[in-house]
């Protein structure tokens, strides 16, 4: 005989299965809407590997990021050439702004770390580095460019290697190769058995980690900033132009978030230039310290 009590149970199970399937389908539909090809397009790491414009497949390949770097470099050189050509004893607004930047790097970064005497030798290099990083970073928020020139690791590596070669060179020049290695790899006042642990760590720090962290910190911050901005403004485009119903209101939220992140990205662009040059000054100063 049919157990009547089992019928509602079976029907309840079927309803539960149907509800679960519907929930799964809705979740799948939401994910398709969020990441699918017909809806909102989330930014990916492919943003940083655009198609070649010229010389594809060669070491001279020219793409959108290379174009951004060229534009930033040309604008930077043009601004400073114009300011230098019009320099006066009583500076105008443009010249005054440039002088404020130069004084900031010299006084607040280089001399603060190295002292006036040691700083004189390195102020031109570190000032050039600071200004170049600012210009290459700030292109990430410039309309039509929309990509930091430092967002691809190659340029940060070149800048870090520039610092790396300089601080090794001045250290060896001052102390000699043996003296430089001794002061960095065998710090005084340490029991000799500890050197078996300490010396490899110091070697990694001096010859690997310092340049690597300089490059990675700069590139990672610019990559993260670009992805956040693309995410916010792509979402704004989707909500305003493609979404329907109440979802359109979310466009205002994503737009405000995009504006906020743009301002934050300007701050980060300046901050990363400051950190890069500050650490470079520290490394140079450490190379020049007297042996103990």
Descriptive account of the structure:
The protein is an all-alpha fold. It has one domain. The chain contains 8 helices and 2 strands. The protein has a two-stranded antiparallel ribbon with strand order 1-2. α3 crosses α8.
The structural class is: mainly alpha
Low-confidence segments: 33-37
How far the N terminus sits from the C terminus, by CA atoms, comes to: 98 Å
Could you estimate the helical fraction of the residues in percent?
Answer: over 70%
Beta-strand proportion: under 5%
**General form:** globular
Number of helices: 8
Strand line-up in the sheet with most strands: 1-2
For the secondary structure, the number of strands is 2
Output mean pLDDT: 84
What is the N-to-C succession of helices and strands? HEEHHHHHHH
The structural domain count equals: 1
Integer-rounded radius of gyration: 28 Å
Major sheet: size, sense and barrel closure?
A: 2 strands, antiparallel
Record keyword descriptors for this entry.
292 residues; mainly alpha; two-stranded antiparallel sheet; 8 helices; globular
Record the SSE blueprint.
Elements: H1 6-35, E1 52-54, E2 62-63, H2 64-85, H3 93-114, H4 116-119, H5 123-138, H6 154-185, H7 195-241, H8 250-288
Antiparallel strand pairs: 1-2
Q: What is this structure, in a nutshell?
A:
Helix content is 73%, strand content 2%.
């Amino acid at each position: 005989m049919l157990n009547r009590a089992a019928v509602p149970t079976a029907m309840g199970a079927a309803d539960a299965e149907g509800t679960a399937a519907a929930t799964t389908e809705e979740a799948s539909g939401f994910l398709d809407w969020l990441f699918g090809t017909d809806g909102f397009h989330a930014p990916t790491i492919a943003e940083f590997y655009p198609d070649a414009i010229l010389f594809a497949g060669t070491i001279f390949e020219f793409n959108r990021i290379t174009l951004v770097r060229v534009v930033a470099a040309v604008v930077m050189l043009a601004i400073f050439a114009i300011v230098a050509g019009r320099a006066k004893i009583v500076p105008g607004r443009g010249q005054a702004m440039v002088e404020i930047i130069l004084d900031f790097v010299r006084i607040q970064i280089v001399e603060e770390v190295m002292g006036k005497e040691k700083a004189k030798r390195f102020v031109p290099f570190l000032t050039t580095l600071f200004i170049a990083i600012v210009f290459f970073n700030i292109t990430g928020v410039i309309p039509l460019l929309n990509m930091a020139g430092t967002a691809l690791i190659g340029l940060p590596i070149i800048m870090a290697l520039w610092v790396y070669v300089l601080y090794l060179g001045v250290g060896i020049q001052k102390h000699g190769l043996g003296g430089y290695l001794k002061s960095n790899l065998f710090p005084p006042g340490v029991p000799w058995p500890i050197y078996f642990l300490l010396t490899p760590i110091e070697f990694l720090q001096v010859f690997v980690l310092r340049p690597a962290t300089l490059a990675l910190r700069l590139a990672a911050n610019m990559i993260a900033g670009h992805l956040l901005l693309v995410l916010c403004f792509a979402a704004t485009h989707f909500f305003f132009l493609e979404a329907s119903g109440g979802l359109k209101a979310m466009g205002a939220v994503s737009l405000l978030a995009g504006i906020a992140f743009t301002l934050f990205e300007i701050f980060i662009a300046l901050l990363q230039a400051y950190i890069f040059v500050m650490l470079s000054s520290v490394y140079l100063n450490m190379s020049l310290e007297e042996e103990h």
